[in-house]
Design goal:
Largest sheet: 6 strands, mixed
Low-confidence stretches: none
Strand order of the largest sheet: 2-1-3-6-4-5
CATH class of the largest domain: Alpha Beta
Mean pLDDT: 93
Strand content: 15-25%
Helix content: 25-40%
Oligomer: single chain
Radius of gyration: 27 Å
CATH superfamily of the largest domain: Ribosomal protein L4/L1
Order of helices and strands: EEHHHEHEHEHEH
Shape: elongated
Structural class: alpha/beta
Distance between the termini: 14 Å
CATH architecture of the largest domain: 3-Layer(aba) Sandwich
Number of helices: 7
CATH topology of the largest domain: Ribosomal Protein L4, Chain: A
């Protein structure tokens, strides 16, 4: 079993926790991680860009000059692509960029990403974070204790007052992303330098992803 330290909000180690090797100790598949990240980014694309082809641009109904005898190149329309104000040759049109991947592939990529954070000593387990009110400054102090500027903070999926206050306290801090256990994804794990998780959340992760 993989063991990591458990810290309080003052960045003091207060114990250890054993991690399931089936989640945090797998063989890292970099190719699969890349494929899943590309898939996530593709699924986020709106695909709404659109420009006009030569058939859609306004004007150009008549031939600008006769075919022969002018000394100039033949032209059929002033809205041809080579003309200023003409249509676009391969104009982008609204389309759906999303596609699906196998669930087992996505699960293995997630485990690979989590394992990479353990091997790089970027996984920080905090015993608990409790906030009776929304305090961004207090949240910033906790992050400063760990010398963290960019991280994804994973909380338990419960809808209690403390969890809501932590999410609201962290959302205005640049470089900090909050996530629940069930909404955790490969892109967020790889994008942020550190992976912070509460003890309750990591225990939940080991039940969900095992």
């Amino acid at each position: 079993m993989v063991k990591v330290g458990v810290y309080n909000t003052q960045a003091e180690q207060i114990g250890e926790i054993e991690l399931n090797e089936a989640i945090f100790g797998v063989e890292i598949n970099e190719t699969l991680v890349h494929e899943v990240v590309v898939n996530q980014l593709a699924n986020l694309r709106q695909g709404t860009k659109s420009t006009l082809t030569r058939a859609e641009v306004r004007g150009g109904g008549r031939k600008p000059w006769k075919q022969k005898g002018t000394g100039r190149a033949r032209q059929g329309s002033i809205r041809s692509p080579q003309w200023k104000g003409g249509g676009i040759v391969f104009a982008p049109k609204p389309r759906d960029f999303s596609y699906t991947l196998n669930k087992k592939e996505k699960r293995l990529a997630l485990k690979s990403a989590l394992t990479s954070r353990v091997l790089q000593n970027k996984l920080i387990v905090i015993s608990e974070i409790k906030m009776d009110s929304i305090r961004t400054k207090e949240m910033q102090i906790i992050l400063n204790n760990f010398k963290i500027k960019k991280a994804v903070l994973v909380l338990d999926d419960g809808d209690d007052k403390h969890t809501r206050n932590v999410i609201l306290s962290a959302r205005n801090i640049p470089g900090i992303k909050t996530s629940g256990v069930n909404t955790l994804n490969v892109y967020d794990i790889m994008k942020y330098d550190n992976f912070i998780v509460t003890r309750r959340a990591i225990e939940n992760m080991q039940e969900v992803y095992a």
